[in-house]
Specification:
Layout lengths: L21 H6 L15 E3 L5 E3 H4 L20 E9 L4 H19 L32 E6 L39 E7 L2 H14 L4 E12 L28 H7 L15 E10 L1 H5 L3 H8 L28 H5 L10 E2 L2 E7 L5 E11 L6 H11 L6 E11 L12 H4 L2
Antiparallel strand pairs: 1-2, 3-5, 3-6, 4-5, 6-9, 7-10, 7-11, 8-10, 9-10
Bound molecules: protoporphyrin IX containing FE.
The site of protoporphyrin IX containing FE has 28 residues, from strand 7, helix 8, strand 10 and helix 9.
Function: Involved in the recovery of exogenous heme iron. Extracts iron from heme while preserving the protoporphyrin ring intact.
Pfam families: Dyp_perox_C (PF20628), Dyp_perox_N (PF04261)
Subcellular location: Cell envelope
Length: 424
């Protein structure tokens, strides 16, 4: 894929192929004009000549870096997550797919259309880009790729010896009611953005590029982030109405990220250094039952109060919790690092509502996403504890599950997702 539209002049100029890029179309769309590659640096230059934080501008999040974006970066409000089965048996075709995906992701996250764009090309061929994101801002789109355990199976792509020890299949937890059709996957792509159309466009175009090499196994749309990586921002609320993400690993806390989220080189394998591991769980929340539960019981179940979000017996949201003031079955008490040998993870989940279930109940819940250095020391022990004892279990059920190794970031234009895994 050739980039036809980089540089500060491109907002006004047509691309090399004579077609405006998605970003140049954006440029004429209104006051929030994003000019050139400067947007990728974290601030968007506006026509007025000022600069505003990427947070507010719907700007571009840098694609290249030591770590993949979409983990420690600020959490935008919309998600489209897709798990893929690799349908080709040809290793070279899989490698080419990852290169093609990387090139497309580098463009889409910066607000460009895929390849030569959505219109103006050969009338006889389908356009490179599907077009529905034309005129939209980059919207802090991040695309994060992962590799599932099944990709490393013997007899597939010769990767069985490269499988990280930490990429274990999750055990069956008490109460799990997992739907195989909503679980697993050889590959995953997490698309987060301020604008749902931008996230959906990204997954759709990656699926389209992958035609004949991968097929979508399952996907999940999410809205209303339930955790944030920016502790100074207002804590979002989940569908039970409680603040969620109060006590989370902050995306700005380097020491915590290094200790609990990024894989250090010493953990091995070498290709996973600076990567992470992702657990995805589709958790159905029985909204109607919860809504008939008294406020006192709701607060006892969580271990925090509903209004302020303060831990039981404390006044303010960010007061340190006194775990013994909570019921032994309270969710916060059971999930707290002090109850789990210090285990921590970076939660980054979203609420979902997929209509109703045929019995008049909302098919709604939490699409739980958590990044960690090693699932064996984080999600697995914490979820074991929760699955056995959490009072919340009366109101929730885990119905989908997947785990992925998240490789490190793409360093520059010559690099691609998974290069370390497939090289040497
Ligand atoms: C639908 C399911 C769930 C709901 C509604 C829920 C809700 C909450 C709420 C309201 C809090 C308190 C605010 C906060 O600090 O974020 C919390 C904390 C937490 N939850 Fe969950 N949660 C759910 C599932 C899970 C799962 C599956 C895990 C991990 C296995 C988990 C791990 C945690 C952790 C680690 C904390 C922070 C505890 C602390 O350090 O104080 N949660 N959750």
């Amino acid at each position: 894929m050739t980039d036809t539209s980089d540089g500060p002049a491109d907002a006004a100029a047509p691309s090399r192929a004579g077609r405006p890029s998605r970003r140049s179309v954006i440029g004429w769309g209104g006051a929030g004009l994003v000019l050139g590659a400067g947007a990728a640096g974290g601030t968007a230059m506006t026509l007025a000549g000022g600069s505003e934080p990427a947070e507010e501008a719907g700007a571009a999040v840098p694609f290249h870096g030591e770590h993949q974006a979409g983990i420690a970066t600020a959490v935008p409000d919309r998600l489209h997550f897709a798990a893929f089965d690799v349908t080709t048996r040809d290793r070279a075709a899989l490698v080419q797919l990852l290169k093609d995906w990387t090139a497309a992701a580098a463009r889409m996250t910066q607000g460009h259309a895929v390849g030569d764009g959505a219109f103006g090309g050969l009338p006889e061929a389908p356009p490179d880009d599907t077009g529905e994101a034309l005129g939209l801002k980059p919207s802090r789109l991040t695309l994060t790729v992962g590799f599932g355990p099944s990709l490393f199976a013997a007899g597939r792509f010769g990767l069985e010896r490269r499988r990280p020890g930490a990429l274990v299949e999750l055990p069956k937890f008490p109460g799990d009611n997992l739907d195989a059709a909503r679980s697993g996957g050889d590959l995953c792509v997490q698309a987060c953005a301020d604008d749902p159309q931008v996230a959906v466009h990204a997954i759709r175009n990656l699926a389209r590029i992958g035609f004949g090499r991968v097929a979508v196994r399952w996907s999940q749309l999410g809205f209303g982030k339930t955790s944030s990586t920016t502790p100074d921002a207002q804590t979002p609320r989940n569908l039970f109405g409680f603040k969620d993400g109060t006590s989370n690993v902050s995306g700005a806390d380097r020491a915590m990220l290094e200790r609990h989220v990024w894989v250090p080189p010493a953990d091995g394998p070498a290709w996973m250094a600076e990567g992470s591991y992702l657990v995805a769980r589709r958790i159905r929340m029985h909204i109607e039952t919860w809504d008939r539960t008294s406020l006192r019981e709701q607060e006892d179940v969580i271990g925090r109060d509903k209004g302020e979000g303060a831990p039981a017996g404390k006044a303010r949201e960010h007061d340190a919790p006194f775990l013994k003031a909570m019921l032994p079955t309270a969710h916060v008490r059971l999930s707290h690092p002090d109850s789990n040998g210090g285990a921590r993870m970076l939660r980054r989940g979203y609420s979902f509502t997929d209509g109703t279930d045929g019995l008049g109940r909302l098919d709604a819940g939490l699409f739980f996403l958590a990044y960690q250095r090693d699932v064996r020391d984080a999600f697995i022990p914490v979820q074991r504890n929760l699955a056995r004892n959490d009072a919340l279990n009366e109101y929730i059920q885990h119905v989908g599950s997947a785990v992925f190794a998240i490789p490190p970031g793409v360093l520059d234009e010559d690099d691609w997702w998974g290069r370390g895994l497939f090289s040497s």
